[in-house]
Amino acid sequence: MKIKSAEFTASAVDGRSFPKDRLPEIALIGRSNVGKSSLINTLVNRKGLAHTSSQPGKTRTINFYRVNGEFYLVDLPGFGYAAVSREEKRSWEKMIDGYLEDRPSVGGALVILDARRETGEAEELLYDWIGRFNIPVVTVFTKADKLSSNELASNMARLKRDLHIAAAPVPFSATKGTGKVMVWKKIREMLP
After folding, report:
1. What are the sequence ranges of the domains in the chain?
2. What is the pLDDT of residues 126-182, one digit of tens each?
3. Which of 10, 69, 78, 103 has the most CB atoms around its CB within 10 Å?
4. What is the DSSP string of 39-56?
């Protein structure tokens, strides 16, 4: 996809602050520190558009990035971050639930997973949960450049088997740009 423009437009905790223009949206969902911001920056060719941090749990709001004036990439708060209170985790879950339930413009979701990490109960719950919203889901394996091709293939096969997902994850590297074209292809397929 040719990127003509990409801009941060809103940071919100509820529907009152969401964009009102009804453009299609692609949600990015994943654990804290999995590389969602780096993925956004790489996709739109803009370093620093989405703020990256080495500290997990920095994204605490729903952040909207308008691309080419045509649709949004929407960065949701990361799940699985242990250093915040239970009450704050519940408020994030409620915020994300509200966004996905009440937002007809959501065309699909990218589930972002770190290719190096084992998947567990949190990921199983995530796929069960997102399945309730009846939207297309594409799994993206970030940090793919950190593994050998054999390790990557093994982890992709295990994820597909353990989580019963239909399609293989898209391997992606923000450092090398690997998978960028395929992620855009999947996004275009989810957009109306």
Report:
1. 6-190
2. 888 888 899 999 999 999 999 999 999 999 998 888 888 888 899 999 999 999 999
3. 78
4. HHHHHTT-TTSSPP-SST
**CA-based max dimension of the chain:** 47
Q: Can you list the pairs that 65-69 forms with residues at least 24 positions away whose Cβ atoms lie under 8 Å?
A: 65/6, 65/7, 65/8, 65/9, 65/40, 66/5, 66/6, 66/7, 66/9, 66/19, 66/23, 67/3, 67/5, 67/6, 68/1, 68/3, 68/4, 68/5, 68/6, 69/4, 69/5
d(CA 136, CA 177): 24
**Residue 56: its pLDDT value, please?**
47
Residue 151 sits at φ, ψ, to 5 deg, of -65, -40
- What amino acid occupies position 169? P
Which superfamily does CATH assign the domain made up of 6-190 to? P-loop containing nucleotide triphosphate hydrolases (3.40.50.300)
| Region class of 58: left (phi > 0), else alpha (psi between -120 and 50), else beta | alpha
Strand duo 62-67 + 6-12: pairing: antiparallel
CA dist 74 and 21 (Å) reads 14
Alpha helices in the chain (DSSP H): 36-43, 86-102, 121-131, 149-163, 180-190
Helix%, strand%, coil% for the chain, nearest 5: 35, 20, 40
